[in-house]
Design goal:
Elements (H helix, E strand, L loop, with lengths): L5 E2 L3 E3 L5 E9 L1 H4 L9 E2 L12 H20 L8 E5 L6 H6 L7 E4 L5 H15 L4 E8 L1 H8 L15 E2 L2 E8 L5 E7 L14 H20 L8 E4 L3 H14 L8 E3 H4 L12 E2 L1 H17 L5 E5 L1 E3 L3 H5 L6 E3 L1 E6 L2
Parallel strand pairs: 3-4, 5-6, 5-7, 8-13, 11-12, 11-14
Antiparallel strand pairs: 1-2, 2-10, 3-9, 7-9, 10-17, 14-17, 15-16
Helix pairs in contact: 6-7
Length: 341
């Protein structure tokens, strides 16, 4: 390991920091009608969000491919220079990713971190570039409301009631090119999350399941880097939504940390709670990814935010574990993003 790279028990600090060169974002119709609607690169125009395909699963694959191609185009580098692709989704065996990026023919690491996958992919990509294993890598993830509901809850045709604690799975895909070439956003460190399980079993309250993991990672980042949270202009969690965000702030305050004035949650930002029927906010792999690419990164590039801690969160459940009565553990990964001069 390069001298000085390891920080504390869970973190890495990059002395020769990799840079985040570009982002590609594509979302569904509902997301395009939300507060961030005009900021996305592309959006679906049909209510089913099929993107010209016959099934929701095929549509999710199509979103991933388009997001990757958009990110490569914006990075202004030849596709063949991308050494590795780190990607994942919510579906069984990561089918949205494997089928979506097949045509790109980039060596693939398939990932699963539930809704924290964007953080996992960016962290591994940054580590690869920092270590000299690649000059350029791609990180991508996606989710689709239709495919997620069918796999984890009830087929949409059932028209089942959603409790107020439920979140709306974002239809979207975000892709990022990471490289050693300098840009205005550098990845200066990562804090790899641990699995945190408070024994919750309610799949309709994922914010509550994930909040303890977000708290654990934020506290680990603080300890490992020896910095106070005031050093960050913004601490951005992935998709805790309204319920999970409230729990996170309370847990941190019990540990003597108050981030309320500098906290933003992607699940709260992407939809308008008053006009869009999404209950507790947004969720899904695509939620944090498209919000990072369309809203957070431009803020850093413009210099409005100088240092951001990006903490996407994930509920690590499957249809098997849930049906067998297992609890839903959470995980969160921290990515330190800084404005590069």
């Amino acid at each position: 390991m390069k001298s000085g790279m390891a920080k504390g028990a869970q973190s890495l600090g990059f002395t020769e920091a990799p840079f985040l060169l570009s982002a590609g974002t594509i979302v569904g119709q509902k997301e395009s009608q939300g507060p961030l609607g005009k900021l996305f690169d592309e959006y679906g125009e049909d209510k089913e969000n099929l993107f010209g395909k016959e099934t929701w699963e095929e549509a999710e694959s199509e979103m991933q491919k388009r997001a990757c191609l958009r990110a490569i185009q914006k990075a202004q580098i030849p596709q063949e220079k991308i050494r590795f692709l780190f990607g994942g989704d919510l579906l069984r065996q990561g089918t949205a990713t494997s089928l979506g990026i097949e045509s790109l023919q980039i060596p693939l690491f398939g990932l699963f971190g539930a809704c924290s996958t964007s953080g996992e992919a960016i962290a591994l990509g940054a580590m690869s570039v920092a270590a000299g294993y690649a000059d350029y890598v791609l990180a991508v993830t996606s989710s689709h409301f239709g495919s997620a509901e069918k796999e984890f809850r009830f087929p949409l045709g059932y028209a089942s009631q959603r409790p107020l604690s439920a979140q709306w799975t974002v239809t979207g895909s975000g892709a990022f090119v990471i490289g050693k070439e300098k840009s205005k956003v550098r990845i200066s460190g990562v804090t790899v999350g641990k699995i945190v399980d408070y024994g919750l079993k309610d799949s309709q309250n994922m914010g509550g399941c994930m909040a303890p993991a977000a708290c654990d990672t934020i506290l680990a980042n603080r300890k490992d880097f020896g910095r106070e949270m005031e050093e960050y202009d913004q601490i951005v969690t992935g998709d805790l939504g309204y319920i999970g965000s409230t729990i996170l702030l309370e847990l941190l305050k019990k540990n003597g940390v108050d981030i309320e004035e500098r906290h933003m949650d992607c699940g709260m930002k992407i939809f308008d709670q008053k006009t869009q029927d999404t209950h507790a906010g947004g969720s899904g792999c695509g939620c944090a990814a498209v919000t990072l690419g369309s809203y957070v990164l431009p803020k850093i590039i413009k210099g409005e935010w100088k240092k951001v801690l990006f903490v996407p969160t994930g509920a690590l459940m499957s249809t098997v574990s849930f049906n067998e009565g297992e609890s839903i553990p959470g995980i969160a990964h921290g990515i330190v993003l800084e404005r590069a001069c």
